[in-house]
Input
Amino acid sequence: MYTFAAKTVQGFLRIVGGKLTVHQKEAVPTDTPFIVVCTHKSWYDVVCLGIALHPVPIHFMAKKELFRLSMINKLLTSLHVFPVDRENPGPSAIKIPLQLLKKQKVVGIFPSGTRSAEDDSLKQGAVRIASRAGVPIVPAVYVGPHRFRDLLKRKRRAVIFGEPIPVSKDKSVEEWNEILSQTFRTLEQ
Output
C-alpha cells in the first residue's frame, strides 16, 4: 500500500503542482537505519518527505487522535504510521520506534510535535530515541507551498536533506535540539 500511495500521490502532485525537487539525497544513509526529522508546517511536509525518500518507506509517528476513525486507522496503519499520545507519552512512544530501528527501518519524526509556521522549540523524542538506538538523525526541510491553491500555481517545491547527525551522549538533549534547529534554518535558506 505504501508504494502505491507514494506513486499515486506523487503523480497527482506532479500534475497539479509540478515536479518535486529533491536536494542532497546522496547524504541519506543507505546501509543503516536512521531517524529522519523534518520541519512541519503543513501536510505537504509529510507527503513530500515520503515521496523524496521513496522507495524507502518511512514509519511516521502521528498523534493518536488521527487514529480514532476505523477507516482512517486502517489507512494510516497500512501507510506505516503509528500513534503516539502527545499529551501523555508512555513507553510506547520510545518502544515502537526503537523496535522499528532494530528491524533496520526508517522512522520519521516531526520534532516540533505539531504543524507550526513558527520556529517552535523541538521536542526531545527524536534525540532520545536516536541516542538509545545508536542511529543517526537525518535532517530534512520542505520548501514550497503550504496551501492547495498555492500548489495549483505550480510554485517551486523541494525537499532538502542535510548530512546525518550522529547523536552521542557528550551533549545534552537541549544542545542536540539546538543543533537540529540551526540545521533546519540553514537548510531552509
About this structure: Residues 33 and 104 are 5 Å apart (CA to CA). The two ends are 34 Å apart (CA to CA).
